[in-house]
UniProtKB/TrEMBL annotation:
Keywords: Abscisic acid signaling pathway, Cytoplasm, Nucleus, Protein phosphatase inhibitor, Receptor. The keyword Ribonucleoprotein does not apply. This is Abscisic acid receptor PYL8. One of its GO terms (cellular component) is nucleus. One of its GO terms (biological process) is abscisic acid-activated signaling pathway. Belongs to the PYR/PYL/RCAR abscisic acid intracellular receptor family. The keyword Nucleus applies. It is found in: Cytoplasm; Nucleus.
């Protein structure tokens, strides 16, 4: 299910990736989130032009926050959880300004993309990436991923928030571009959850 959480502190426009994001958290008992959503909202605020679209998605993960962040922060190894990554070559390592060239799998309407690491904050668990090239239609695309400790079904867990901004191509509507971007992010976040929860069970 994709929907909104009302009364749980979540900004109204944020999209929940899965049903476990409901306010009952699967237990039938309302469990208020411990994440500071006002702080998270500020981290994802964007200044848009009239020719851009944006969206913010939320995923709850039953794994410790440090474990989830250890996967998200790997700008040099996005294939650890992103299923559309076939190969990644990085110039510069894990420092701001580093560039990665990603070869994509055939499921996407592109073969490669080039991205720059704009922000890597281990203390606040923030990853910022900007797209600077590739054989796709996404221009001036940037994304922010933040990872937050939370309570999932009464247990320690993690909430991941991902937002993006991208220019609208001439022949596409805002709904078309947002639908495509949201679909890719949902797949990535579900894959992140599966990888994180699998590693958590092994610990």
């Amino acid at each position: 299910m994709v929907g909104m959480i009302n009364g749980g502190g979540y900004p109204r426009a944020w999209i929940l990736v899965d049903q476990e994001g409901s306010s009952s958290r699967g237990s039938g008992i309302a469990m208020p989130p411990i994440i500071d959503f006002e702080h998270a909202r500020r981290l994802h605020q964007r200044q848009l032009t009239g020719n851009q679209c944006t969206s913010t998605l939320v995923k709850h993960i039953n794994a410790p926050v440090d474990l989830v962040w250890s996967l998200v922060r790997r700008f040099d190894e996005p294939g650890k959880y992103k299923p559309f990554v076939k190969q990644c070559l990085v110039m510069g390592g894990l420092v701001v300004g580093s560039v990665r060239d990603i070869t994509l799998t055939s499921e996407l309407p592109a073969t490669f993309t080039t991205e720059v690491l704009e922000r890597l904050d281990d203390s606040e668990r923030i990853l910022g990436v900007r797209t600077v090239g590739g054989d796709h239609i996404l221009k001036n695309h940037s994304s922010i991923v933040t990872v937050h400790p939370d309570r999932i079904e009464g247990r320690t867990g993690t909430t991941v928030v991902e937002s993006f901004v991208v220019d609208l191509p001439e022949n596409n509507t805002k709904d078309e571009i947002c639908y495509f971007m949201e679909a890719v992010i949902k797949i990535n976040l579900r894959s992140l959850a599966a990888a994180s929860e699998r590693l958590a069970r092994q610990q």
